[in-house]
Every structure is written in structure tokens, then in C-alpha cells.
Amino acid sequence: MVIGHPLPPASAGAIGLRAEHTGLLLGRGADGDAVLLRLFRPQPTRIALIGGLWLARVAVFRALALGARVFVRTSDERRWHGLGEVAVGDPDRVRVVTGGRPTVAGRFGEPVLHVHDVEGQRVFDLRPDEAWQATLTISAQLTDTAADALSVADAALVQRMWAQQAVYVAARLGVDPDAASEVETLPDDTVALLSDGQVRVAWVSATDIEQQMFGPPGRL
Question: Does domain 12-214 have CATH number 2.60.120.200?
Fold first, then answer.
């Protein structure tokens, strides 16, 4: 789906989901508490996302609300076309890149997000000194690309998947496999965050703006 519905400038900043200093708000858990992803930190961060394009674009949209500059490698530019302009009124905030990796510096309040949306191609890694930068590797299923990303990931965002796959992901992230069993039955509007040795399931309550831009929740 191509993003093409005009919204007021800086819409991302007005979605009411601007994350606290501790992270990006994914949604609410069963206990009603916020489920936060530590996406941008003083050290580089690597996130593996195994799920649908809907979740990936919502995550990037919310990263824009944190002031992020986004660089996307993709096999289909239409998946990301117009996101920067529609979300924050600045087309340069989301750039599709090819060739070598961009030389950019992240800083507090102006972090950098590198999105890898290409299957069958190894994801570049961040250097230890690349503060306030993060990589987000997107895979619809547990592919070789996803496995590579999981091998170095600080956290994983997972939508519904088979139990055997959930066990594999949990093992890679140092999470008790039994704790990941509920991933097999997740609804389309939920995501499991695996990090710090635990799994938390969040209901991703999309705002009106996100629903207008990305449509209803989906796993594909």
C-alpha cells in the first residue's frame, strides 16, 4: 500500500504516543501498563521485527515522533513512499537509500533509524561508537535474513508465528521458551516484545491517524 493521504504537518508528533524518555510506546499490556521499546540509546541498538508491514510502518511512524531520521533499504520503494512528508511534513526525514550505507551521526533528540526491508541480503551492523542509532530488520517470516538479525539483536518484535519458530526466537534472545508459547495465537493488533530475558505482549492501539495512513492491523 502506498501512503498517499495528506495529513497536517508534524502529524507524528501529535499522535499522543510520543514515547517517554525510556522508550518508544508499542502499546499496553494485559495489566494496562505501557510496553516500551528501548529503540534509541547512548549505545547502538539492533531490533529484529518478524511480522507484517502494518506493524513495521507503525513502528517507524512512532520513531519519527521521537525526532528520528530514517534511512530505508527496500526492494519495494512503494512500501515507504511519502511517509516522511505525510507524517512530519518533511520528505527528507525518510529516505530510501541504495549502495553504501549513509554516513550519519545520531544524537539525543535526533536519533537515526536504519530500516532493512530486503530479504536475502545481509544486514550491516552498527559500530560500538554509533550512539543514538538503531537498526530495524523487517522479515515477514523466520527467514535467513531474520535469523542473521536475531543473532545480534538486542530485542525482537514478533507477531503471530508457529510455536517452533517462537521457541527459536526466544532462545536467540535468552528468553524462556515456555514464556513465548502465546505468540502462536496473537491477534493481528498485538505484538510480543522479547528483550532482557522476558517477553511482553502489547496491544497496539492504533490512533486515528495511523489507521488512516496504514489501514487495519494485519499480519501480512
Answer: no
